[in-house]
Amino acid sequence: MLEVRDLQAWYGDSHILHGVTFDIREGEVVSLLGRNGAGKTTTMKSIMGLTPRRTGSVKFRGKELIRARTDHVARAGIAFCPEERAIFASLTVSENLLLPPRISDGGLSLEAIYELFPNLRERGGSQGSKLSGGEQQMLAIARILRTGARLLLLDEPTEGLAPVIVHQIGRMIQSIRQRGFTIILVEQNVRFAAAVADRHFIVDQGKVTDMIIGGESTLERLKASVRL
Questions:
Q1: d(Cα 30, Cα 182) in Å, to the nearest integer?
Q2: Sign of torsion, CA 111 117 119 125?
Q3: Class of domain 2-88+148-226
Q4: Across-strand partners of 55?
Q5: Most buried in the list 48, 164, 183, 205, measured by CB within 10 Å?
Q6: pLDDT of the residue at 193
Q7: What pLDDT score was predicted for residue 133?
Q8: What's the pTM?
């Protein structure tokens, strides 16, 4: 579904990515793991065309996107949920959900979203600024499920959340995977990533240095790899 080859990225004179290469198969959940500053979020932003300069190759379903504008990448079927969530504080939950345009068929209906996130149904008339951190994260993910994008890039979805909310996010990821979505997950919570992802790409100093297959049974190996 996604082929990334020799992806390089810069912020000004700072060379952040040094040849990131990996593949994602349709229907997978994969994680990008590594220390802070390894290049995980920059990899996601570079896939979306959100870095000032990038080279290499990013192919989505065979279509080259390395020179595409961010809006064209989104319309191709890739959606990005940033760590900062980017909820519009002055809009209600319902207005936030309806804001992004549909880019293709296959997005979830509001009813399906409310089945996944019953909290959002209850808070539909509340302003974004009134939501808890967990509710904001649910809203940020729910918002991109409407669009019809089939590849979801989730940046630190469990950051700062209580364990009970982390568990809900994990169940949600498994549920949307069963609905045919493909997910790339950047996480600092290695235990969470081990529980939800099929494969794990270890990122260090702007490169993918290892690929680990498996779930929770690989937890210790993942922990050791992330401490590179």
A1: 8
A2: negative
A3: alpha beta
A4: 8
A5: 183
A6: 92
A7: 87
A8: 0.91
